[in-house]
Amino acid sequence: MTQRSSQRTKKRDKKAPIYSVVDLETTGTNVNHGDRIIQIGCVLVQDGEIINHFETKINPREKIPRSIVQLTGIEDKDVRKAPLFEDIAGTIYSLLAETTFVAHNVNFDFPFLNAELERAGYPSLSIPAIDTVTLSQILLPTAKSFRLRDLTSSLHIEHDHPHSAVSDAEATAELLTDLLKRIEQLPTLTLEKITQLKLNLPQQTAGVFDVELLRRRKSPQPLSEELYVSHGIVFHKSRPITANGQREQHKYPSTKKAKEKLYGETLKLRPVQAKMMNSIYNNYTHDEPKNMIVEAGTGVGKTLGYLFPLSYVAYPDKKIVVSTATNILQQQIIDTSIAQLNKVLPFKMNSVIIKGNAHYIDIARFVHSLSVIEDSKLVQLLKAKILVWLLSTQSGDLDELNLNSQQSPYFTEIRHQGIRSLNPANAFYHDDFLVRREKRLHQADIIITNHAYLVAHAQELGDGTRRPYLVIDEAQHLSESILKRSRRTFNFQKLRTAVHIMSGLVNNGNDRNLTDIFAEQALGSYNVELLRGDLNAVEEAVDLFQQALYRQYMASATGNPDNELIEQPLQNDQVMSLLDISGPVMMKLEQALSSVQLHFSALSHLFSSQPDRWLLSDRYLMSQFQSQLAKLIEADQTLNEFNETLQQQGEAAAAFWITIRQSSEQSALQLSGGLLEATHYLTKNVYPYFAQPLFVGATLFTSPRSLYLYHQLDLERNNTLTRRFASPYNYKQNAKLLIAEDAPVPSAQNNSDYIKYLSDTIYQLTKNADYQTMILFNSLVMIEQVYSQLRETDLFDQRDILAQGITGNRDKILKQFSSGKNSILLGASSFWEGIDLPDSALELLIITRLPFDSPDEIMNRAHNKLLQQQGKNPFYHSELPKATMRLRQGIGRLLRTEDDHGVAVVLDPRLQTRRYGKTILSSLPTDLPVSGKKTAELISITQKFLQNGKEDKVN
Q: pTM of the predicted model, to two decimals?
């Protein structure tokens, strides 16, 4: 047992409150079921200074579970001679009395400690307690994770031994000090808004804001120069775009010497990247530039490789539009590559990110929502979080909040619906982030967007006369974005829910609604009454549509009607007939929806013509109705787009199906469909607005002769310049690809044997090796089956096992894995690419089977049928190229820096035994060592190679 005082480093206010920051390690999570404390760490903090430490292990008088030993490192022998809790209870009680208790997850530590004190004969502590988890969620709104080790890492707080009580307590004390400083820096207006929310936080956590506000009223503080106030809300000032003064052309540094002179100490010249730069510059300064495809392997530095030469080509008169596959990649380009670019260029390239409207917060809607005290604790916490976020965000992009709860209905209320939805007379119009973005867009030299936005807004981004340069980064996904955009679902249950909410806002009831708002206005009351009838008509029309669709299902049903999930393809001519705008079903639905829009528009006009008459809560109710109406309009647009797809693309180019989810209480029906191919879409709707596009990616080609990529991008091979730049990494020395030649071939017949083989082999590969391991599967079902078998082993006592769809969603488990040391991640399709795990973050990659699409999936069946009708072989024209590209992307996760070591293990013998396996292998890096081995030998080779790699790094 240790107890010591720290040396003072500054004069401390001895009248300031003392915080007792506590962390417990226990045998389990439930004290009422016999779980006990095995270690307690406590740090006393006053006026930002640690004034005392207390730490001891405790004998729980029971065996410590293996999972706790693995987590904490505390074994039975470590606590055998430690004091019992009863022996130290008095010390703890007196130490914590008259302090404010603090913990990272206070609702675990505080009740657990009080229960133990009561068991030892002491009264429970009646002191205030606050939680650093929820404080962090509010005060660190853009944090990616709120686990203690992730927060301390991002704040550069020393935290050497996670899950050691004293180390956790010391780290939490440093975190508390940081959070209290952040509260002291909050503008008074923001503090007031937070306290007005009446936050329901753990224990007395919300009181921290009240105490600071009380202090602030006695000692006011000025507003930071970076901030400004608009109608009671504090915002961060927009950072002005830097003007370049007189804009003139600059000579491109084509030689190695010229580039090195320009780079100076800022960048290191990469020979392969320099070749890529010159190749791009030469094409786009040629008298007749061509469409260009550049495949740049991992480590080439492809983003700077295209931005650098195109900046010289475009500046000063033209823009560059960069489209990439995901929102995360957009942010990486602006944070990393453009920052590097502007450090070396002799001129400044201003940039802006542009995404769909729904990614941004609508400030006016958010402010309206503040007036409503929610029953939901989560919603109130989100409001406080956003108030703090507004003090730092320049973009208003909700993605900055890194939330997994963006599907919450609350976000529907505050998401932006576009500049056209704004009222220029609104008090927050000039503060609106889309209005701000529009100004930056006109001044930007580089516009960074994503494929989905590009496909939908090409004309807006491009210019028929100036024709900006267009870069398609991660070009293999462009065609996929078109198909995703066309593939929609009409969900009857969601539509009924929206109608039900809207009906509640106009029908007579106990809660205030639109009926009460317009009770004293004859015209308003009349339109509210009409809306009631309109909503009934919408519900009837939806029922009529569902009945007609269900009749079509019954006429063509082929599956087992007792299945919980039924997916049934529909005949396109039948869908076209059903969606005919002049037919009885669609006509009734369109008329009912038009009436709702007409009568709510009349109410909106009345409402906006008398702005001083209404309460903030009235504005919120109108906003709620409008949000639900937007869902109805979106559903109607889905049906109209289905109809448009059939009319414009022809019946053969699309596929439709219904999904029925049955349960004991009800069944839910939805209609889905969309395009099978993006034939000529790009040449008609995207390319005409830009100069000859540049297509870039790390894994674009599937074989030297394949035309797959050209077909996907609507390009003619003869009119396209192609350049391939291999990865500079040393695959021969730093990587291996091992194929299990005795693995069972995956099939439906031997599924149980196959699952057992996978589970046993994964166990053997990982049980005695503490290497970061990612295991890639083709389906979530397979993950669940393998995870279930691994659960029966002792692997869970040794390793942190993360499984997509079981222990968390993709974003959550990826965050945990990237900060892990010996984690195992089981992931499906979304983990095959777009993940950067350098150094030791990934060392062993296990691929359970070749990544072919499921041939039974409805859209795949329909597409294969279409290819056959066109006289093409579906396997060689589509299935094999897609699987090859996916495998290249998966193996590309392995080496992300020149010092990385890693092994890829493929547990599918077809890669070696089938003829197409040679085609796939020929697409991989030429110097990657590939060998087929028996499973037992493969395991020992893997462990030896990884151990040697670890020793090389140490040496």
A: 0.85
